Input
Amino acid sequence: MDGMDILGIAQQGLNQAQGQFDKTAQRIAQVGLNAGPAKAPTDSVSLSDEAVSLLSAKNQFETDLGLAHTADEMTKATLKLLG
Output
């Protein structure tokens, strides 16, 4: 596995983390928006579950960012050895 493969994997993970964050934020924001004044909200959300999801996305993002940094350092070290 070379540095480019690692960067691709890191990019995919960053995209997945962003998607998870966006979906969770949308679920939180949508609660009760479609309910009229006479209706009880039809959707409910567990704030603790959504908080866990947001933290999971944050941790995944940080991990994949670290992976990208490591791949960059590996590429620099390889170029230094070759140069």
About this structure: The chain has two helices and no strands. The mean pLDDT is 86.
